[in-house]
Amino acid sequence: MSEVLSSFQLSPGDAAPDFSLPDAYGKLHARADVAGERGLLVVFACNHCPFVLHLADALGDLAREIALQGVNTVAINSNDLSRYPQDGPEEMKVFAAERRWDFPYLLDESQEVAKAHGAACTPDFFLFRPDGKLFYAGQFDDSRPRSGIAPHGGDLREAVRRMLEGEEPLARPYPSSGCNIKWKPGNEPAL
């Protein structure tokens, strides 16, 4: 397990990249359709990453909590499925059901949506305001696999609170950390 820190390419105030991606059942979901009345949390995730596995249940709980406040969640899997078949659509269905993810879990086979967000790892979190501008890009919380700290979503929960209350975002959020996105050969973003 190698830990990668996200290198943000979007900055606070940047517009949300548009997308229309299929879920594991083939149904298309556009960004505008999944966004909540008060915001959208975009999470880059996959089925096999230990960092995602560590916080997947807590993410489902947080997503339900913020949905009640008008902030919807969408997860996007951008991994190369030819090399990581365990992240494929059939496995995505099972993973989302077991983790009680009540939000869309989409497949970015071209990897263009991950690139447009500047996503580098799984999990990687991007919180957008209702106007589609980036409010927060950073970690879920300070827990890590084998850290002895249970996932609690403290950093992300605080970012949502600040956004909903019209406060300034965190000045220097701690970046997401996890496994690198499994890029298709030759598709790696320029550093």
Which regions contain 5 or more consecutive residues with pLDDT less than 50? Answer: none
Biggest sheet strand line-up:
6-5-4-8-9
Helix content: 25-40%
Q: Which H/E pattern describes the elements?
A: EEEHEHEHEHEEEHE
Q: Please report the distance between the alpha carbons of the first and last residues.
A: 21 Å
What radius of gyration results from the CA coordinates? 15 Å
Structural class of the secondary elements? alpha+beta
Percent in strands: 15-25%
Overall 3D geometry? globular
* Overall pLDDT confidence: 93
Given the structure, what is the number of helices? 5
Sheet of most strands: 5 strands, mixed
Q: How many E strands? A: 10
Q: What would your notes on this structure say?
A:
This protein is an alpha+beta fold. 26% of the residues lie in helices and 21% in strands. The protein has five helices and ten strands, in the order βββαβαβαβαβββαβ. The protein has a five-stranded mixed β-sheet. The chain has a three-stranded antiparallel β-sheet with strand order 1-10-7. Helix 2 links the parallel strand 4 and strand 5. The two termini are 21 Å apart.
